[in-house]
Amino acid sequence: MTKMDKPAGFSRRSLLKTGGALVVSVGMPIGLETVTAIDQAFAQGTRPPLTPDQLSSYIAVNADGTISAFFGKIDGGQGVDVAIGQIVADELDVAVAKVKVVMGDSATSVNQGGASNASGIEEGAVPLRNAAAEARRVLVEMAAGLLSVPADKLVVKDGVVSAADDPSKRITYTQMIGGRYFNVPVEWNKKWGNPLSIVGKAKPKKPADYKIVGQTVRRNDVAPKVFARFDYITDVKVPGMVHGRMLRPPVAGAVPTSVDESSVKDISGARVVWKQGFLGVVADKEWDAVRAAQRLKVTWSQVAPPFPNENELYDHIRKAPVNKRVEAMKVGDIGPAFAGAAKVISAEYDWPFQSHSSMGPGCAVVDIKDGQVTVWTGSQKPHYAVEGVAGILGVPRDKVRAIWVMGPGSYGRNDAADTMIDAALLAQAVGRPVRLQYSREEGHAWNAKSPASVHRVRAGLDQDGKVVAFHFEAKSFSRLDVASNESEPRHTLAGQLTGLPPKPADIYLFPGEAAPGGPYSFPNKLMAWETIPPLLASASPLRTSHLRDPLGPELYFAAESFVDELAAATGSDPVEFRLRYLTDQRDIAVVKAAAEKAKWETRPSGPRGPTSAVAHGRGIAFARRGKTLVALVAEVDVDRQSGKLRARRFVVAHDCGLIINPGGLRQCIENQTVYALSRSMWEEVHFSREKVTSVDWATYPILDITEAPDAVDVVLINHPELPPSGAGEPTVRTVGAAIANAVFDATGVRLRRGPFTPDRLKAALS
How many Å apart are CA 159 and CA 182, to the nearest integer? Predict the structure, then answer.
């Protein structure tokens, strides 16, 4: 090969003559004879099959010079897609604005588990980082052949590859492969969902070489949302579609025994779909579907009310038989330690059912045409939606495509998971595309809930006030009465209503050091979790599943409140007490950082000085979630007369390893703090013996703007030497305990049941 003075000497026409594909040779320097050998192509004009072991499944260079990163998760508003774009841009040496993150479509990305806030970056970014690094390696080797320059003598800047000693020798990613696809194999770990990972021959960059990772990059979805130019799942329209509505029983567990279809015959286009316990209506116009659902005459089976009285809920949990018991952590032997303790302190804490209470009810559109099924869904796990829809319809999975469209938020398993299965059955029955939307009442009452639970904690102290034994027991409904994704129809309302048997999963969430109290160096400790049967076995409005930071708020409300009780019992400052029993330097650093930023006054907690109408207090809580560490200080005011609580300020110290986007991370932490404040102060599902009665914002109140804190001060602790860990949920688990501890500091009253409503707090003060 003769030396090239200018890459322009090789036209795209000559390289891609006869319409063939540009050749990418991997594993060796590339010569022109290889590049022009069409029959040995390693890149092609059509995309190779979408499989986890192909580089093209993750990265593409587009004809316009942009980069597509195919992400098998979704971003529900945390800015995960922005961080993914930064990671890909850094590895490929292109501007972050050139990276388009394509996500949530089963036809364009492999199944990386959908949205799991703690795994979006920690696990989800790994395949994309490795794929981008491998794509850069391949492109540099291509350029080496085209430019007749050894690969190690080339540099890349903004997608332009050039000789380090002669910038005139240059070629762009777009010139080499723009508009075509890599046909390069990568090594896949043979795991689907969150743990899916791949590696290529290239090694990703070292943190010291990052130029974009670690910088604040703004999200691009905020302005369209603010100015109403953003399309949500409720905006999806398909030609020829009809509108659907579901009918739910007046008593949970009842099923239709007769349906008078003539009662809606005067409503234009109204049709009834009835299959066992599944009952819905469709009509050409949405309001007609609403009217048909309201007017349809249904006789429901007579069933015994399935729920206890609400005021007996926690007694029911305490007395209920145990399905399964798991000891998440056992260190030493607590029996002899308690027997020899000079003093034993114990307490019990309760936490209610809580709802997703998304700002809008669930919605989905399903179109079945020519044997192909297309689903538009707000579910945060669209790849699993493919499996669920295929299962309920009895069609092959490769005949179903699920397209995620932003919904009203989910943070776990909300009603979006059920709407698309309902819509699929309706569409199959009526032979037309169906848009199904729940009502506000249906969304609140029938979405899966976070489980109610009780927690028993005790500790033994020796003569010197040192903790010698720590015992934490939680008892609750399963955290997964229905799975956190809809891959099995049996985990959906439609599946259970059409006769599929439920399959609860009694599993414990926090193994080992992640267990409540785990980081503290108490010499003898036992942390255990017990699950009990659901109140209603099938199609229950109180069925349980994931809500943001599954089980975290309740477990850490109990554990970190009790650690504060131990500090008070030993006359210790709450920060100093925690530091006394923490040994990991990262744990210690995050607690110290929060205290320093909050200007923490070292003293035992409790009221000081004369009683005033409004008491002021501060409290702290510390938690791990996976490899992420959070310490949070809350400052509160308590109106003694009304029981009204106001959280004025939060200080959050946060360590999630390598920080990708500090600005986005701060916003995410602020979001979690306000969200968890709402759950701590207001959110509680109410129910009668027959049904859930929390059906709107009046019966399920949430935090309003007047109750938002004046400030959320965030301290970010960056560890570039560590991989990034989850940041979408850890702060949630610290808020409730920190507030309760601050209330004790202000008033001397311990709050042992959430949420901390004015009536509950006023009763405690009295």
Answer: 16
- The count of other CB atoms within 10 Å of the CB of residue 200 is 22
Whether residues 297 and 340 share a domain: the answer is no
CATH of the domain at 672: 3.30.365.10
Does residue 708 belong to any structural domain of this protein?
yes
Please give the model's pTM, rounded to 2 decimal places: 0.93
Residues 650 and 715: their CA atoms lie apart, in Å, by: 11
Other Cβ atoms less than 10 A from the Cβ of 101: the count is 23
Chain position carrying tokens 């038989």: 321
Name the pLDDT band for 269 (thresholds 50, 70, 90).
Answer: very high
75 token code pair:
């971003």
Tell me, yes or no, whether 526 lies in a domain.
yes
- 223 lies in a domain? no
Yes or no: say if 282 and 271 are a contact pair by the CB < 8 Å rule: yes
What does DSSP assign to residue 332? S
576-605: pLDDT as tens digits:
999 999 999 999 999 999 999 999 999 999
**Into how many domains does the chain fold?**
5
Q: Is residue 561 part of a domain?
A: no
- 198 - beta bridge partners? 188
Paired tokens of 691: 């049904």
Instruction: Quote the tokens at residue 520.
Output: 């503290």
What span, in angstroms and rounded, lies between the C-alpha atoms of 173 and 533?
Answer: 58
Contacts of residue 304, defined as CB under 8 A and 6 or more positions apart, other chains included, come to none
| Closest alpha carbon to 127 in 161, 97, 88 | 88
Nearest 5°: CA angle at 427, between 425 and 429?
70
Q: Is the pLDDT of residue 39 over 80?
A: no
Please give the residue range of the domain that contains residue 492: 310-355+448-532
Domain boundary among 486, 510, 532: 532
User: CA-CA distance, 483 to 379, in Å (whole number)?
Assistant: 13
CA distance 766 to 763: 5
Query: CA torsion, points 310, 739, 562, 587, in degrees to nearest 10?
Result: 130
* 663: helix, strand or coil: helix
Residue 384 dihedral angles phi and psi, to the nearest 5°: -75, -25
**In 15-150, beta strands by DSSP E:** 43-44, 59-61, 67-71, 99-103
pLDDT digits (tens, 9 = 90+) for 296-355: 999 999 999 999 999 999 999 999 999 999 898 999 999 999 999 999 999 999 999 999
From residue 469, how far is each of 71, 75, 333, 409, 582 by CA, in Å?
46, 42, 8, 42, 15
